[in-house]
Amino acid sequence: MRRLFLVLLSLVLLISLTCLPGCWDRREINELAVVSSLSIDKEDDIWKITAEIFHPTTGGGEDGSSGGGGGGPERQVWIVQGHDYTLLGALRDMALKVPRRVYVAHTSAILIGEDFGRQGIEELIDLWERDAEARIITNILICRGKAEDILLGSQGSLEKSVGLELSGLRRFSPVNGRSTILTVHEFTTLLEAKGADPFTGVVELRAVPTVPTAGDKGSSSGGSEEEKNKETAQALRLKGLALFRDDKLVGFAAPTEARAILGLQGKIADTILHVRATVDESRKDNTVALEVFRLKKRIKAQEKAGQPVLTIKVTAEMGLAEQAFHGDLQQADDYLFLEKQATTVMRNETEQAIQLAKSLGVDPFGFGEVIRRQNKKLWQKLEKKWPEALRDIEISIDTQAKVRRSGLIGGPPIKKR
Questions:
Q1: Which residues lie below 8 Å from residue 273, measured CB to CB, with a gap of 6+?
Q2: Which residues face 184 on adjacent strands?
Q3: In whole angstroms, what is the distance from residue 381 CA to residue 371 CA?
Q4: What is the secondary structure of 307-333 as a DSSP string?
Q5: What is the pLDDT of residues 364-386, one digit of tens each?
Q6: Longest dimension (CA), the chain
Q7: What is the DSSP string of 217-245?
Q8: What gap in Å lies between CA 344 and CA 106, rounded to an integer?
Q9: What is the pLDDT of residues 39-48, one digit of tens each?
Q10: pTM of this prediction?
Q11: For residue 146, which of 111, 173, 174 has the smallest C-alpha distance?
Q12: For 46, left (φ over 0), alpha (ψ -120 to 50), or beta?
């Protein structure tokens, strides 16, 4: 009996081994071309995808040039482009140019050209959500003009690739409050919402001065010293937001308008407001920086006399972070003056952002979702014509600023005699 049991057990184990997948679909790391970021443009119905692929031979130290000195590491990537009538076809077109398998699972960012964005990015969202290899945590950004120019024009910073640099900007941009970066998943969530429209950050190039290296000093003999000091490089910068209606780009929000949108969305961790220290506008030392460290918002949807009304209340707690004014601003009247100005700045930015949304026919604030949650009967009347109905809605804005602290010191460290 025991022998029969052992025989049956052995047969079961042998049969089980044949069902195990093993490593039949393995992908060796030295056979992969790992993509850091992609730029996507569309020209005459032809997709043009530019891929930034990590260079496998670069690393830290002398060979990778990522040690100290100089103005920062050069991009440690290789660039390849694909063209086709579909996005997937353009990606597979790279197989004819890359001696490794193009691997998009670790793609940090997708840059979308302005023309492609205005035509609609549904095809990209469909591919990225459908493909088993792509990840929905990939960052998505809009470029003014061609996305290819941004990817190819960026000349390096603290990171080895554009994708890694944009990942860092996503993490730390909330402390500025004037832009943000959404992932494919976050963008799709807003896209599927009935009472909100998606948005994401806008990336552009800016000129920054270069730091001469030891090799530059010995090799560059031509040109004056002044011309050498004026040499610049192109670096990435986030600036404002790109606003969408469904999947189509319809316009851009300036940094101050973007701050109001992000504030009502609860996506600001910190930001700086600039106000005057005194009534005298002619003084050069009249600027004060107030750091907002806590921002609360409440939106209430009501119906009065058959008409929808939205009431927005924004409360900000801030501290005196910096003052160019040489006087003491620790008196109660001084704080009240600063608070009054900060309140006005917040209200003006919110009003400008709402007017922009009404003019573009979009709802990046999610007002429709607020109405749907708080007043279902009212939402049923507005749903079919939202967000165009936002133009006719009365919106009441109440902002309040409170200066709570002044940092580690009270008055200025050096008082003018």
A1: 289, 290, 292, 318, 342, 345, 346, 401
A2: none
A3: 11
A4: EEEEEEEEEEEEEEEEE---S---SHH
A5: 999 999 999 999 999 999 999 99
A6: 106
A7: HHH--SS-HHHHHT-EEEEEEEEEEEEEE
A8: 44
A9: 999 988 899 9
A10: 0.85
A11: 111
A12: beta
